[in-house]
From TrEMBL:
Domain ABM: 11-98
Gene3D superfamilies assigned to the protein according to its UniProt record, in alphabetical order: 3.30.70.100
Keyword line: Monooxygenase, Oxidoreductase
Alphabetized GO MF terms: monooxygenase activity
Record carries keyword Oxidoreductase: yes
Protein name: Heme-degrading monooxygenase HmoA
Amino acid sequence: MPQISKNNSYQTVITTFEMTPGTCQDLLEALTDAYAAFISKQPGFISAGLHVNDAQTRIANYSQWERREDFLAMLRTPEMRERNRRVNELCKSFEPVMYDVAETFGDT
């Protein structure tokens, strides 16, 4: 489970995927498999979550990594490059963006 705090040194990556309702479930299954079988086992991985909007036209992915370099190394592996080609076929677009936590509110 992601621990969101501005006091940690984790690299936060938020990726948004845009797709049609017809491909949402296939994309969600591909992403779930990628996390279960590969991404969650990579060095530096901490946690992740997948969120689907009610229209099934967007998936938001929140992940945390020990270091920026860990996330980038995972992206460069042959397996992840192949998985991303499949993901690209299932959606209109996707964009991973690295963030620093600026502030949190409520129970975290």
